[in-house]
């Protein structure tokens, strides 16, 4: 029996991850990047921030990652929506991306989306 395919994480910025967003869905597979604001070793919960937006990350499955507040991290995982409409990402992988220019990252993400949208519109004509 074949196992279900693991979905790639859709690139999303934390400010975009609002309840009205197309990405804000239970079980959505996402890739998020932000600066580590806090980390609890007891609960394995990290909080990352980008601009004024924050997201809680459940890191219980990440064994080899050392967390340092102020460092920039990227996580891929599944989004879970709590009853109070707060989101937490169940991370299946994570990495330290210190040195990344977040402004440039946001610009490149917009260009990728623009390219994909143009490609989709060209394939339907």
From TrEMBL:
Any one GO molecular function term: telomerase inhibitor activity
Organism ancestry: Eukaryota, Viridiplantae, Streptophyta, Embryophyta, Tracheophyta
InterPro entries membership: NA-bd_OB-fold, Ten1_animal_plant
GO biological process entries: negative regulation of telomere maintenance via telomerase; response to heat; shoot system development; stem cell population maintenance; telomere maintenance
Originating organism: Corchorus capsularis
Protein's UniProt name: CST complex subunit TEN1
Coiled-coil positions: none
This protein's GO CC annotations: CST complex
